[in-house]
Structures are given as structure tokens and as C-alpha cells.
Amino acid sequence: MNIKISQNIKDIVPYPPGKPLEELEREYGITDSIKLASNENPWGPSPHAVEAIQKSLAGLHRYPDGSSHYLTDALAKWLEVDPTEIVLGNGSNEVIEFLVKALVSTGDEVITSHPSFLMYQKFVQIRGGVNKVIPLKDMTHNLDAIIESVTPKTRLIFLDNPNNPCGTFINQKQFSLFVTKLPEEVTLVLDEAYVDFVEPEKRIDIHRYLKDTEGKPSIVSLRTFSKAFGLAGLRVGFGIMSDELADLLHRVRQPFNINLLGQIGALAALADDDHYKLTLDQTIHGRNWLTEEVGKMGCVAYPSQTNFFLIDVKGDATSLYESMLHKGVIVRSMKAYGFPDFIRITVGTQSENIRFIKALRGCRLDLNYA
Ligand SMILES: Cc1ncc(COP(=O)(O)O)c(C=O)c1O
After folding, report:
1. Which residues line ligand 1 (CB under 6 A)?
2. Which residue's alpha carbon is nearest to atom 3 within ligand 1?
3. 323-347 average pLDDT score
């Protein structure tokens, strides 16, 4: 084999997904393990989505609607935007990919933070763009340093808000000021995968940035059905942006990028207020309970506006992660993200949360952290 491959592709480090339960159970010879590592919805998918999907299975021999008309329309109503201002993706991941494909050419610069969601930098690498990575300051996006690193070659800035893995967020005032300092050639992407968990009065109002964009930077909000809507396995996400930018993104997407079940499931989930509300209420309740319990053991839980948060476990996080795996509890060590004493956990159901606390207490004792 003699594949000719460019250096930017060789340099890509594969994305480290959370360990699947089946793999863990096989490796460790355990059963009944729990996964609190990928910020998924522990209350499952909306039952309405499951029912609608089941009813649609007989239609799988047909291609789906390439414009995802009904889902786009329903989203537009829910978000109070125009359908032309929405672009759907195979997960919001795919909308990130569209943005990079459409806007970044070899040598163009893209600004991201570290740590933040890893996929931004990967797509830029694939495209031969240049990643400029700005360290977080006090676990939050360093907006001043980001502005300073903008050059005439900057095409995109990605801000995950709330930030993954820290759960911190920037508010409307900080955001508005930041936008005024950006040149109009730059597209600013606000990745709001976890926005449903943010208190409504603390959210950024994307509507202000969609119209009258003359002389101003383009602003995009990315959302997903993978978190609060509990449909991570279906892969449906979307971006909200000016119709002009949406038109560009439609040019780089495949014609049937949202599959039939994804369209039907997401549409049903969007109409299921009960499941959505239960998810938000239970997440906030679980987060508060876990924060208190973790504090009782002398660890520090960092405030978060999401369904996950960081915990300073007061000892090596990777050893703790390994030790917890043996008890069938999967979390993430934050060592690779630059926080060697921190783990990140996703809020689970109450029984999962209780199991996590028990395992954390036991493992910290075993490792002499307590
Ligand atoms: C900040 C952030 N953005 C985007 C995504 C991707 O979401 P999706 O499942 O819609 O591709 C994730 C997933 O964990 C995330 O944490």
C-alpha cells in the first residue's frame, strides 16, 4: 500500500469517544454498569418520538425529504425564526463541518478555545486551515485574547456556550460587546448544544443577529436534539443563522443528510413538552443533589449551567477514573484537557447519581484521597 496522504490528515488524532457500556463490561467482566461520560439524556428518548419512529418504519425503502420540510417548519415556529434561517445537520457536528467546508480554505485561520469541544479543530485540520487555540481564563472563554488574535485571515470563531467541559458561560452583555469588536468578515459560531439547561434569562438572544447584517459579523447558533431532547443516537442538530449564510451551507451538504427516522423522531420530540420539561427539572435537581454530596466528601463541584459538571477530586483523576471503571461507573478524566485532578460527570437518574456517589466515596478511600 502506498497511499499519498497530506500531512494535515496524518496529524489528526482520532476523537476519543466515551467508553461504550458493552465494551467496558466485556473488558472488566462486570454487568449493570452506568455511563455518565457523554452528556447524554439519562431519561431516554421522548416516548412520542419512539412511537412515531415505530410507525414510520415501513417507509424505509424511500429516500427522506431532502429539505426536512416539516421538521424545519416546526423548528422555525418553536424558535420564532424564518425556516430559511435554519440548517439541519447529522448532529450539530455536521453543521460545524458545513461551516468549515463553506468558509475555510487552506491557510485560513479559525479561533477556538482550549479546552472546548474537540471537533471544531478536527474539521479545520481536515480542510487545511490553521487552528489558533486560546486557553480559557478562569475556566471561561478569554474574549479579550480571542479579539487580539483575530487577523485578516480569520474566518471563523467557535465559542461553545456553555463551554464543554467546564460548564461555564458568557452572558448577553459580554457577548454583545465582543460582537462589536469583530470585523464583518468573521463568522462567530455560538455552539449552544446545552442551551436548554441554561436559565432562560441568562441565554443569549440570537434573534438580534439574524437580520440587518450589513457591516456586521455573521452570528450562528448551533443546537442539538442529542442532549435535552434525548435523541443522541438519531443524530439531528441544527444551526440558526442569516438566510444568506444558510444558503451557502445548503450548497455543501448532501441532499439527504437528515435520515427519515431522524426527521420523524425529532419532530415528535419537539412537540413533547412533558419529556423536555422532565429532563430539565430532573437535571437541575440531580445537579444540585450531586453538588451537595460531592462537597460533603471534601471534593469541589464547579458550578455549571449544563447537564454535566467538573469535580476536583483532590487526587489524580485518571487513577480515580480507572478505579471507578472497576465499579462499573464510567466518567471522564480531565487530565487530557489540562485538569489532572478533575473528572467530568453527566447528571444521571437519581439511582445512577446515588451509585456514582457511593463509587466515588469508595474509590477515593481506596486511593487514599480522602
Ligand atoms: C459543545 C458541544 N457541541 C456539539 C456537540 C455535538 O452534538 P451532536 O450530537 O448534535 O453532534 C457536543 C456533543 O457532546 C458538544 O458537547
Report:
1. 39, 91-93, 117, 160, 164, 191, 193, 224, 226, 232, 237
2. 193
3. 94
pLDDT of residue 18: 61
Q: Any residues with CB less than 8 A from the CB of 43 and at least 6 apart, and which? A: 230, 275, 278, 279, 282, 349
Please give the single-letter amino acid code of residue 240: I
Q: Which atom of ligand 1 lies closest to the CA of 225?
A: 10
Q: How far apart are the first and last CA of the chain?
A: 54
E strand map for the chain: 34-35, 86-89, 109-114, 130-135, 154-160, 187-191, 218-224, 237-240, 300-301, 308-312, 329-330, 332-333, 342-346
19 pLDDT more than 90: no
Q: Whole-angstrom Cα distance, residue 71 to residue 265?
A: 9
Q: What is the pLDDT of residues 60-69, one digit of tens each?
A: 999 999 999 9
Distance CA(99)–CA(77), nearest Å, equals: 24
- Alpha-carbon Rg for the chain in angstroms: 21
